[in-house]
Design a protein that fits this description.
Layout: E1 5-9, H1 16-27, E2 30-33, H2 34-48, H3 55-64, E3 67-71, E4 77-81, E5 84-85, H4 93-102, H5 106-120, E6 125-129, H6 132-136, E7 142-147, H7 150-163, H8 170-186, E8 199-202, H9 208-222
Parallel strand pairs: 1-6, 1-7, 2-6, 7-8
Antiparallel strand pairs: 3-4, 4-5
Helix pairs in contact: 1-9, 2-4, 4-8, 7-8
The structure holds cytidine-5'-monophosphate.
Length: 223
């Protein structure tokens, strides 16, 4: 493989997307936010009143609507549904509550996994999610498992949401992160787990910069 693939997995709120985005920027390669893809399906389901439990209904939605993923000028991963940019609507508590239920459906995962692989086939990417090192890019030369203490993750999410004008308590977020982690690790199809060959980074007491530097040093060692 001539291009570089970096897989970053970990539980909700560990800072994967912040770190992955910065690693991609520093290396001048593409960032692929797979959580945003699952969130886009949840967004569609909420908008059209389809239950996240209804796999066939979700598949129909995916056939009826055009989803597009694009890197914008700031290196961000933008999601378009039927031509409209919905990226800023993907990290709401409503979408977060629906997403881990629908991401357990094997057929939904198969469709999204195929889209995700198409990004890494021809170019260097940093991809983050739950099953990147285990399922989507099992041959990636750099695999990171990024985690952090759950209280710290809830605090970070609260700050992130507050910056967007949502006021959600740390306790509430703690509860929803726990629920999401539980669903993501216990589902039968492509559950969240640390790939055997991944390097684990616990970011509880680390700054974003420190985590980014650590990943870049791992990249330099293997590439
Ligand atoms: O990373 P993010 O919090 O945006 O992911 C939202 C949800 O999408 C996760 O809780 C998980 O249920 C699902 N997901 C997944 N596989 C991925 C990425 C996300 O199942 N590769």
């Amino acid at each position: 493989m001539h291009h570089l693939c970096i897989a970053i997995d970990g539980p909700a709120g560990a800072g994967k997307s912040t770190v992955a985005k910065e690693v991609a920027r520093r290396l001048g390669i593409v960032y692929v936010d797979t959580g945003a893809m699952y969130r886009a399906v949840a967004w569609l389901a909420l908008r059209h009143g389809v239950s996240p439990a209804d796999e066939q209904g979700l598949i129909r939605l995916l056939r009826q609507h055009e989803l597009r993923f694009e890197r914008n000028g700031h290196g961000m991963f933008d999601v378009y549904v039927d031509g409209a940019n919905i990226t800023s609507e993907l990290r709401t508590p409503e979408v977060s509550a629906a997403v881990s239920q629908l991401s357990a459906h094997p057929e939904i995962r198969r469709i999204l996994t195929e889209w995700q692989r198409s990004f890494s086939r021809s170019q260097s990417v940093v991809m983050d999610g739950r099953d990147i090192g285990t399922v989507v890019m099992p041959d990636a030369p750099v695999k990171i498992y990024l985690t952090a203490d759950i209280r710290e993750r809830a605090r970070r999410r609260a700050d992130e949401l507050a910056a967007k004008g949502f006021s959600v308590s740390v306790e509430e977020l703690l509860h929803s992160l726990r629920e999401r982690d539980e669903r993501d690790t216990s589902r039968a199809c492509a559950p969240l787990r640390r790939p055997d060959d991944a390097i684990c980074i616990d970011s509880t007491d680390m700054t974003v910069d420190e985590v980014v530097e650590r990943i870049l040093s791992i990249v330099r060692q293997v590439h």
